[in-house]
Amino acid sequence: MPPLHNVQHTKIAIVGAGSVGVTTAYALLLAGLAAEIVLIDIDKNRALGEVMDMSHAAHYAQARVRVGEYEDCAGAAAVIITAGVNQKPGQTRLDLVKTNYALFQDVVPKVAHNAPDAILVVATNPVDVLTYAAYQLSGFPVERVIGSGTAMDTTRFRHELGKHFGVNPRNVHAVIIGEHGDSQLPVWSLASIVGMRLKDYCAQKGMEYNEADMEECSRRTKEAAYEIIQRKGKTNFGVASVLVSILEAIITDSDAIITVSRVGSYAGVDGVALSMPCKLNRRGAHQDVPLLLSGSEKEALRKSALSIKEVLSSM
């Protein structure tokens, strides 16, 4: 495996020059996390235009950005897959499964053949289903196939809670687990602000803890992407920032804990990919961060896993 901690020798390949792929490439460029970024897309003319534009920023970032073929994935520390049909207003992420699974049947074996030691990072929706598909199609070990999962949902959730309680989201410790979609679940039993459970925080501040307000925060978190898509037709900035965080943890071997999707067994349901907090480093994603869920949360996680299992069974 390439020395991922050495940014001067790190190559990142991105398959898909759509809005998410290009925004991620630009964010990686500005973050200084790679010496070389390769953009791969069936529409080479568009990809070249994007690279030409980014190359002007690359002059200051001191990184090389170029258009490539699948063969150019060779030696990449990580390959990010963003290619696929975008979610349209009124669609759920699961509505995209057949079209994007067919695309993955073509893309993933090519990536795996040319970059057998890379870490795959999947961002295409439905991300949990396609993370499992990428795992099967690549033949990679589970820790080297990572879906962006509920990392974005967790960020949105902390934002909503921070706004409600009037604190910086960085001081909110709360996660969304399960499907990156309608069956996702907030882990209320472990949510805290500077080490205090939410009810305790309210008691200390003389605030009322209102279950309805908490459910509204959860609802806004779940529906945020749908609202953004309804208004602007796509989401790209948020997911790009999440992908950069995932890549940073991998490249710098930081052991950062992020809620990402990984193949495993969840609440008694085997053979699915769902999001749980995972430790990320140069070897991939590791599920050694157990959550002490309540009984109702375990059941909700099981239902989330079964909903994904049902989709996988129909493929």
From TrEMBL:
Q: Where is the Lactate/malate dehydrogenase C-terminal domain?
A: 150-312
Keywords recorded for this protein, A-Z: Membrane, NAD, Oxidoreductase, Transmembrane, Transmembrane helix
Transmembrane stretches in the record are 12-39
Biological-process GO terms, alphabetical: lactate metabolic process
Q: In which pathway does it act?
A: Fermentation; pyruvate fermentation to lactate; (S)-lactate from pyruvate: step 1/1
Q: Which InterPro entries match?
A: L-lactate/malate_DH, L-lactate_DH, L-lactate_DH_AS, Lactate/malate_DH_C, Lactate/malate_DH_N, Lactate_DH/Glyco_Ohase_4_C, NAD(P)-bd_dom_sf
Any single Pfam family the record assigns to this protein: Ldh_1_C
Catalytic center residues: H180 (proton acceptor)
Could you tell me which residue ranges the Lactate/malate dehydrogenase N-terminal domain spans? 10-147
| Binding locations of NAD(+) | G16, A17, G18, S19, V20, G21, D41, N100
EC number(s) per UniProt?
A: 1.1.1.27
GO molecular function per UniProt: L-lactate dehydrogenase (NAD+) activity
Query: What family does the Swiss-Prot or TrEMBL record give for this protein?
Result: Belongs to the LDH/MDH superfamily. LDH family.
Q: Which domain of life is it from?
A: Eukaryota
**Lineage of the species this protein comes from:** Eukaryota, Fungi, Dikarya, Ascomycota, Pezizomycotina
Q: Which PANTHER family match?
A: L-2-HYDROXYCARBOXYLATE DEHYDROGENASE (NAD(P)(+)), L-LACTATE DEHYDROGENASE
Could you identify this protein by its name? Answer: L-lactate dehydrogenase
Q: Name the reaction it catalyses.
A: (S)-lactate + NAD(+) = pyruvate + NADH + H(+)
